[in-house]
Amino acid sequence: MSEKETKTKENEKEIYPCVPLRGVSIFPNTVVHFDIGRDKSIKALEAAMADGRMLFVTSQKDENILIPTFDDVYRVGTIVRVNQMLKINGDAVRVLVTGMSRAEIEEAYDGGNYMSCTVREIEDGLSEDGLSVEDKAGLRVVTDLFVEYAALSPQITDEIVDKILAEDDPIVLVDKISSDLAISVQRKQELLEMTPFSERLKLLISVIMEENEIAEVEKELAQKVKENVDNNQKEYFLKERMRVIQEELGEDEDAHAEADAWLEKLDALKLDEIVDTKIRKEIKRFTRMAPASAESSVIRTYVETILELPWNSSSKVNTNLNKASKVLERDHYGLKKVKERVLEYLAVIHLCKTIKGPILCLVGPPGTGKTSIAKSIAESTGRKFIRMSLGGVRDEAEIRGHRRTYIGAIPGRIINSMKEVGVNNPVFLFDEIDKVGADYKGDPSSALLEVLDPEQNNTFTDHFLEVPFDLSKVLFITTANSLDTIPRPLLDRMEVIEVSGYTEQEKIQIAEKYLLPKQIKEHGLKKDAIKLSESALSDIINYYTRESGVRNLEREIGSICRKAAFLTVTSNKKSFTVSPRNLDKFLGKKKYHYDIIKGSSEVGVVTGMAWTQVGGDTLSVEASFVKGSGKLSLTGNLGEVMQESARAGITYIRSIAEEIGVDADFSSTKDLHIHVPEGAVPKDGPSAGVTMFTAVVSALTGVPVKKDVAMTGEITLHGKVLPVGGIKEKVLAAHRAGITTILLPKENMKDTEDIPVSVLKQLKFVQLEYAKEALEHALDEKGKGIKKRKATKASKSDTEKKSKKKSGGKK
After folding, report:
1. Cα distance between residue 794 and residue 666, in whole Å
2. Could you give the CA distance from residue 459 to residue 471 in angstroms, rounded to a whole number?
3. I need a surface site. Which of 24, 292, 666, 773 has the fewest CB within 10 A?
């Protein structure tokens, strides 16, 4: 076909220049502009302008094809009239057209300078009867949907909406709405091809509804994005402003930099997943808070505490038994059992390589070296040492810490100590555990149950931390002066080791080897400045101190050193010799005295043995009878238990009166008075039962008791002697008083193993199963003869009385 031919004869169909469109769809009854730049398209436009301005346009199936053929375009397009054309940049042309009608390609011609084709016009599909009720309803729906669509789409203005909705022709209305929808070419092509009208209307309704839903979701998403962007911008602005303020105030805090440093430490610790997750959450919270807020300070303390705890840091434990033994021997004299227990523990570690920390409880009088033993254990095992005094602790938070909901919350002393020491396997000393109290703030001893239980302390949870911390590697040691005040559940979790008092000879050795050199050094004296004789030390121990330990002994030696230091400065004297003769010049007059057994045996006076918190002691028990009606007097500040022991002893005497040669009616014809001297000192306990029994028998029979015999033991109504405690301390006190024979309950004989050999050699021990056995060893040998003669005389007089009654009382 030549370029000049634009029409055929009347009986032939009209041939239209064809322009393929990329990304554009044109509907009838609309005015649209589009740009063309391809050579064929421009030639087709020129041909249309030269002959009637009519043009057929259709959309490409794939807009990426640069030189399309009829196979690349849709068969259905629109016949348009060119209203205006305008050259723009380069060879491109902008064309303004008006859509006339739908059409479908019948024959295509693509052999010339441009594409052309014959077309078949497509009817709009409106029935001859006009709009049905359904169509009318559809038009209302489509207009409402379009208004909603326009409200959601910023490209469609109110003027465009008003102009479109002003159309009376439903076909024109539908086409204009379809043209203004921002949908894909494929969807518009479906609307363009759809006939009849009612079906096109339904499709349009469906398309707009879908687009409205999509637009609604897009709007919500856009709003959320905008809010996030606004928040981020606001947060950024505020942070920058805060940073500038901090710089002006001279503060260099940067929360994010601090948080990054924490995260690096957290990564290095490699904690359990639960703990790790919780800490990361707290760090994230910290970065979102104002640095000056109270909550920020709490979180900082919390995170720093967590990161500073020794989760995986341990000190190397020494398993060399020889080295450990040398350390223990160097620091302490005696204490054989304690040292053996520590060495046994080290031996188990050496074999097993790991062990749950045992809980040792060192029980003994003050000043016996319990705390220093714990320090030596730490040194001998190569562990670090922590000491926590529990004396007077009444708040549970001291152990478990405070919850972070409280202002000024801090972790408990256990966790705080673990943080400071820096390792998870130290020696941890709970000093004075028997002094723990309880009040409205809680019971600390109950809080200690979890700490001191080897089966539970691997998950100890402090209220401040709120995450478990492993305490199973810690070697816990506790000290106490008495077991009586320790709650039973707590005591059940500990291995008790008795640290009894020292003998006089042991104290002398401790003073010579440890105390004197230490005090000389602390007072700035030369090494050999003071010579303290053994007899002087013995006098200091006996007359200036009254204790089981050596604390006061060290204090008195310190007094001597201070006096020597003063004389050194004032008189230039370089050396001092302290003996019993000049001891009072250094320490003043004697403070105490001990009951040294002197004189001869006495009737009704028996030496007993007692235990006190400062060690053993001797006490005299005196008994005396006078004529009366059987009244019993007990004096000397005796406790209830001791009074009950006296009554039990008297009842037993009455039951065996005939056997021991005592008048059976003494309880109704005589008044008995039992007295224990030093009446200002309270006394109680059952261990004086045998002593009071012997004193009463001596008073009844008039047989004296040996001065060099001492005894102890609880007595029953049937005269059985029961075991008592504190045997070592009691025996040492008796030996110090000059006793040579000691009567002990049979079951207490095993306790003599703890007594030094040097003392055992100078004493004779007699075991008692029944109280009457004490009479054989305590009453004077000469007195036994007196007892028998008295019994014989009593029997003879009774016979004479009976015979007189029979004869009427006359000779």
Report:
1. 13
2. 7
3. 292
Sign of the CA dihedral with 24 first, then 29, 30, and 35 last: positive
Tokens of 567: 């004389």
Q: What is the 3-state secondary structure (H, E, C) of 494-554?
A: CEEEECCCCCHHHHHHHHHHHHHHHHHHHCCCCCCCEEECHHHHHHHHHHHCCCCCCHHHH
Neighbours of 612 (CB within 10 A): 17
Residues 318-375: tens digit of each pLDDT: 777 888 888 888 888 878 888 888 788 778 877 876 666 678 888 888 888 888 888 8
Give the pLDDT confidence of 75-130 residue by residue, as tens digits.
999 999 999 988 888 788 999 999 999 999 999 988 778 899 999 998 877 776 77
Q: Report whether 638 contacts 597 (CB < 8 A).
A: no
CB 770, CB 721: distance < 8 Å: yes
> In this structure, what DSSP letter does residue 317 have?
P
* pLDDT bracket for residue 806 (50, 70, 90): very low
Return the SS3 of 57: strand
Q: CA distances (Å), 638 to each of 39, 155, 690, in order?
A: 131, 108, 16
pTM, to two decimals: 0.59
CA distance 78 to 99: 6
| Residue 236, C-beta contacts closer than 8 angstroms, at least 6 positions apart | none
CB atoms within 10 A of CB 806: 7
Nearest-CA neighbor of 467 among 262, 312, 303, 259?
303
- Measuring CA to CA, how many Å separate 409 from each of 151, 418, 661? 56, 17, 76
413 neighbors 399 (Cβ within 8 angstroms): yes
Beta strands in 613-748 (DSSP E): 615-627, 632-635, 670-675, 704-705, 709-711, 714-715, 721-722, 741-745
Residue 397 sits at φ, ψ, to 5 deg, of -65, -20
Write phi, then psi, for 495 (nearest 5 degrees).
-95, 110
Cα–Cα separations (whole angstroms), residue 725 to 522, 637, 722, 762: 39, 21, 10, 22
Pick from 485, 120, 540, 465: nearest CA to 308: 465
**Residues near 280 by beta carbon (within 8 Å), at least 6 away in sequence:** 263, 266
For residue 104, the one-letter residue type is E
Q: Where are the alpha helices (DSSP H) in 334-433?
A: 336-352, 370-381, 397-400, 413-421
CA distances in angstroms from 143 to 130, 136, 174, 206, 219, listed in the order given: 19, 11, 9, 13, 21
- Which residues lie below 8 Å from residue 84, measured CB to CB, with a gap of 6+? 95, 96
- On whether the CB atoms of residues 687 and 724 are closer than 8 A, the answer is yes
Which pLDDT value is given to residue 447?
Answer: 81
| Sequence-distant (≥ 6) Cβ neighbours of residue 799 within 8 angstroms | none
Closest listed residue to residue 283, CA positions, set 303, 267, 301: 303
Residues ≥6 apart with Cβ < 8 Å to 373? 332, 335, 338, 362, 499
- 384-399: pLDDT as tens digits: 999 998 887 878 888 8
Distance (Å, whole) CA 426 – CA 416: 13
683, 706, 707, 730: the active-site residue? 730
Q: Which residues, other chains included, contact 41 with Cβ-Cβ below 8 Å and sequence gap of 6+?
A: 19, 20, 114
Outline where DSSP puts E strands in 580-732. Answer: 602-603, 605-612, 615-627, 632-635, 670-675, 704-705, 709-711, 714-715, 721-722
Residue 756 DSSP code: -
Structure-token pair, residue 760:
């055992």
Compute the distance between CA of residue 19 and CA of residue 97 in angstroms, rounded to an integer: 12
Question: Does 730 qualify as catalytic in the annotation?
Answer: yes
Q: Is the peptide bond before 489 cis (omega within 30 degrees of 0)?
A: no
- The active-site residue, picked from 116, 645, 687, 698, is 687
